[in-house]
Amino acid sequence: MDNNIPSSSVVSTNISPPITPVNYSNKGRKYIKPLLIICLIAVIIIITGVFYLEWSSQNSLTASFSNTNNNSSQMSSFGSLTNPVVELKPTIRDPAQEKINIPTGQLNIDEKCHPVALSKSKLVCFSVQQKILTLKDIITNEEQSVETIGDAEIYGINISGDYIVWADNHEKNIAFKEIKDVFSYDIYVYNYKSKIKKKLSLPPALRLKLDFDGQYIAWTERTKPYTLNNEIYIYDLSSDQIVYSSTSASNKSYFSLNDKKLVWTDNRDYPDNQGGIFDRNYNIYLYDLSVRQESSPVKYPSSKFVPKIFGNYITWVDRRNNKDAIYLMDLKNNQDKVIYDGGITPVDLDINFVGDKLWFIIRESCDVKPMKIVGASGGSFQAEPITYSDGLFVYNINNGKLEKKVDGKEIFVIPDKENLLLRDVCPTKPYELIKI
């Protein structure tokens, strides 16, 4: 046997098959493109987030600085401050949105507290002896000193929201150059939460009546002596400026502010009318702050007193044909009607709205009985007492019903948007909070 086998003919089982070289650079390229796309998307998201955060932060700072600047400019238009801290813009709150459970019934009020204004649970008292204005919470009985008037006189105390307003003459500025002993009454606004007092920057004048609804302050003032004519103004706390004035040469003795509407008695249409304030003819004027428009819805040549407004309704006391009666007008159709004519004294009459109900007080003095002449004979007069149906009456606008709510001869009332604080002083009884 020939063992010399040619090498080319032998198959070796120990030889590995040929290996195909792998190109690693080509294999990695197919993953690079997706990775780049993912990275690009991530970068875009990050950049977008950074820009959004920067934009949001910048807007927040801008709003903050804007509010600060606005509030600073508002405060600068006021007069002297008792505290130099800049106060934020007044918070105008809708009382209807504030639900506070206020218990009704008799209230234990110190005799030193003479109630003058009420808003929810906040009662403003004025001590006649000490000349101190205080704020009392009728739920918690907490008290807060507001102002010491001293030897000055104070008028027109009102409270609404977080603010108390009044007019006093403690600075003793002269109201009229012609009369040296008549002092100007300045208007003050006090925030009982921040305890900051502000004086409105107004020229000297005689201001004795104020009304306040939480945002707007209305008042009448007299800048000239020896006349019954006066002007009427409305001041907006949110913008710190006068937004309306009626400076016609006329008397505007009675006015009322409610629901962004001001109503007042005005005798401008009767320039030749003579007599005292209670003997002249007046029309009732209306200024609507929401549309900035003045009108005269009640036109009739008669004496008119104590106009009040709620929504589309105006009420007032009218002396037509020498008889006083309470009228109600619906502004939707300008139709009026008599709701009470049982004998009233308009000078001492309290009347106002609580929602869709109208309340009024008929008073009779405990000591002095009103009399009427019923005949004359031999130079002497025969008279008999006048009997009034004294007490608190409530008229429902929706159904036209009138009812006597409380009986009493001399009932004095401090009204609120929802409740009435009343007291009968004939004889003197405790204060009572009632819901109409």
What is the secondary structure topology, with strand pairs?
Layout: H1 24-76, E1 105-107, E2 115-119, E3 122-127, E4 132-137, E5 143-148, E6 154-160, E7 163-168, E8 174-176, E9 179-183, E10 186-191, E11 196-199, E12 206-212, E13 216-222, E14 231-236, E15 241-246, E16 255-258, E17 261-266, E18 282-288, E19 293-310, E20 313-320, E21 323-330, E22 335-340, E23 350-354, E24 357-362, E25 371-377, E26 380-385, E27 391-396, E28 402-406, E29 411-415, E30 419-424, E31 431-435
Antiparallel strand pairs: 1-31, 2-3, 3-4, 4-5, 6-7, 7-10, 8-9, 10-11, 12-13, 13-14, 14-15, 16-17, 17-18, 18-19, 19-20, 20-21, 21-22, 23-24, 24-27, 25-26, 27-28, 29-30, 30-31
Structural features:
7-stranded antiparallel beta sheet; 1 helix; Methylamine Dehydrogenase, Chain H
If helices are DSSP runs of H or I spanning 4 or more residues, what is the number of helices?
Answer: 1
Low-confidence spans: 1-25, 57-90
Q: What count of domains describes the coordinates? A: 2
Largest sheet: 7 strands, antiparallel
Architecture per CATH nomenclature, i.e. the level-2 architecture of the largest domain: 7 Propeller
Measured as a percent range, the helix fraction is 10-25%
The average pLDDT value, as a whole number, equals 79
CATH fold descriptor of the largest domain: Methylamine Dehydrogenase, Chain H
Question: How many strands appear in the DSSP assignment?
Answer: 31
Query: What is the alpha-carbon Rg in Å?
Result: 38 Å
**Beta content:** 35-45%
Shape label: globular
CATH class of the largest domain: Mainly Beta
Terminal CA distance reads: 138 Å
Helix/strand class: mainly beta
Q: Give the strand line-up of the largest sheet.
A: 16-17-18-19-20-21-22
